[in-house]
Amino acid sequence: MQNASNAPSDAAFEVHRVSKRYGSIVALDDVSLSFPSGSTTALIGSSGSGKSTLLRLLLGLEWPDRGEVTVDGHVLENSQVLALRRRTGYVIQDGGLFPHLTALGNLALLPHHLGWSNERIRERAEALAALTHLPQNILERYPAELSGGQRQRVALMRGLMLNPDALLLDEPLGALDPNVRHELQDQLKSIFEQLGKTVIVVTHDVAEAAWLADRLVLMRSGKVVQDGRLEDLQQRPAHSFVTHFVQAQRTLQRPSA
Amino acid sequence: MKRWMLFALTCLAISPAWSATPVRIGSKEFTESVILGEVARLAARQAGVDAEHKRELGGTTILWSALQHGDIDAYPEYTGTLTHELLKNVAPDADIPTLRTALKPLGIGITDSLGFDDSYAIGMRDDRAAQLGISRISDLLAHPDLRLGLSNEFMDRSDGWPGLRQHYDLPQTQVRGLDHALSYRALTSDAVDAIDLYSTDAEIPYDHLRTLDDDKHYFPHYEAVFLYRLSLAQSSPVFVKALQSLSGRISEDAIRQMNARVKLRGEKETVVAAGFLGVQPDSDGAGFWSRLLQRTLEHLRLVLVSLMAAVLLAVPLGIYASRARRLGHLVMAMTGVLQTIPSLAMFVFMIPLFGIGTWPAIAALFLYSLLPIVRNTYTGLVGIPPDLRESAAALGLPRGVRLRRVELPMALRSILAGIKTAAVINVGTATLGALIGAGGYGQPIVTGIRLDDIGLILEGAVPAALMALVVQGIFEGVEHWLTPRGMKLEARQ
Questions:
Q1: What's domain A1-87+194-257's superfamily in CATH?
Q2: Cβ contacts (< 8 Å) between B392 and chain A: which residues?
Q3: Is B482 on the interface with A (CB under 8 A)?
Q4: Which of A130, B240, B283, B418 lies at a C-alpha separation of 20 to 30 Å from A35?
């Protein structure tokens, strides 16, 4: 399960030769990747490498110029996008919480639309608050009254409300200060392990990626440079850039590690 | 609660439609016309006909089209206006029987001359004219530097300034358009040297003015008459008879006196007209407070009905504009163009479509309200951070739900601010509604300007200003109350 290439049949998400450009900027250039169901993958690379675009393609938030996106063995079409998004939790940097709703209001948005009772919504929210180590009284607060770490936790809860099959996280800890970040890294890892969902997390931090995921996909200028475990990237770099990228981060990490 | 308010507003909007319709007499926005309108109304009452007088409905165009559309049944007019402005195919010197034949196909009847000729004339201060040696219009040729202040209507009509200038070959270049009621002030305060006036104006003796001799016979006769709808011959023959009985009864001297009593002595048109007919004036009935209440209700109706209609159209337009950017710009450009139409013109444009009275005023205000609301709805929606918009999409909410539960609440503040702007502007602009018979606070303002009565102007202007403040205050309260608490908090780091 750690290597994508040997399990194409039970892949939750798959992209095949996708390219995407915004004007003259190439975001993705002929990328093929497979994300097996139940696996945890980290997409790493510097900003502008195309990792966020890839994530958005998987949710139908963007469409490739060329190539195709396959979800659970079916080519993704516009008509399935709503259902797909409901089966997939999505968390972005800063959380993307709606400022006019309380934390509970944010959590309730989709379940409410699907006809859940208020009791059921609250029960689910309280269970998730326990999972993410948030006190219950946080639920009545507005996003502006929460700390950055609390906002990220609420955003994660929002992604998990419908107990989705997969979680896509785009720099989920990017806006947090180092202490909170470390604490949340630990919690995320344990949550991923407890839930056993397909997880794809985008980050520019190699240490965070290696801590959260077994498989790292390093991207640069819209292409996959290397796909493997941290040891592969360290010991068998596919390109001098891999060493460069990993080393640059390690030297920064060493004093605090 | 909301339903109750809606019901109350609807009643407010349609209530005048319930009352029975008496014969409706119109008048233009100058004193003589209003006096003649009152004379006609009281004569009708004397004959036992229920008649109402819609005073000060603006200029000739408004009255003429209102008569043709049946919004009014009769109004005082002048033969010269008919021959030069309103009827295209009659000779400039056509007599009244000729005019009667020409008007018949239009369904309009004309009385014989009421007994006086109110023709245009050019007037100067007597001392200044004497000093320059001017007594005839031809004498103006020798003084090209004289400043002329001409009423806007006189400036524009073919039998007004353009024709006069051509006829006498006048050299003056300093020509300013003025409201007729203000031109006497401009003349006496030496802001202009000559103005156009009516030969029956009360100010001529009072302000020591000289009317210049029309030595080349340019100005046509302006015999006063009543125009009326021929259909009245069936529906109210008694009224037509009463109107016709006024023919030949009002001499030039009599009308000049009546003008003077109203304009210079501040008597009410009703009192003066009743004195002329030898009947008891019916009291206005309404005291200050009930007058104020009625005007406030009229004004509120104009503002609220137009505003509600505008909200119903402009918010969806703003939403649409934020979705389809290119067409959206077109929508905004169009509402922007509406905004550039001068307000009075906008009111007049509505007359062919809606007649006179409340509805054309509401339609004009409605069009004016669109831009601020469309623009603020658009700005509010476009201003939502893209990552929040995407978060809503990524949740798997359908478009409509995203709009209702996420985007509109976040744009609410901006939308409400747009509605507030429209409402406050509407309160001011609605005062112009008085010129097309919509009533409201504009009524005393129009009368006050005509009679040069500051007190009367304030009777409309002060409540209008107060209403604007109150509307502003209410909307700020509503804004505060409706804005979700989370939107008012500063984000913590």
A1: P-loop containing nucleotide triphosphate hydrolases (3.40.50.300)
A2: 98, 109
A3: no
A4: A130
| Region B120-211: CATH code | 3.40.190.120
Residues of A with Cβ-Cβ distance to B493 under 8 angstroms: 147-148
Residue of A nearest to B398 (CA): A82
Report pLDDT digits (tens) over B101-129.
999 999 999 999 999 988 888 999 999 99
Q: What is the ipTM of this complex?
A: 0.86
Q: Does B479 touch chain A if contact means CB atoms closer than 8 Å?
A: no
Contact pairs from chain A to chain B, CB under 8 Å: 80
Query: Any idea where the domains of chain A sit in the sequence?
Result: 1-87+194-257
Residue of B nearest to A86 (CA): B396
Q: What is the 3-state secondary structure (H, E, C) of B392-433?
A: HHHCCCCHHHHHHHHHHHHHHHHHHHHHHHHHHHHHHHHHHH
pLDDT in tens, A132-171: 889 989 999 999 999 888 999 999 999 999 999 999 999 9
Distance from C-alpha of A18 to C-alpha of A32, rounded to nearest angstrom: 7
The burial of A77, by beta-carbon neighbours within 10 Å (0-12 exposed, 13-18 middle, 19 or more buried), is given as exposed
Kindly list the distances between the CA atom of residue B126 and the CA atoms of A183, B142, B172, B264, in Å, as whole numbers in the listed order. Answer: 96, 17, 20, 19
Length of chain A: 257
Q: Does A142 touch chain B (CB under 8 A)?
A: yes
CB B366 within 8 A of CB B310: yes
Reduced to 3 states, what is the DSSP secondary structure of residue A103? helix
Shortest alpha-carbon distance between residue B371 and chain A (Å): 26
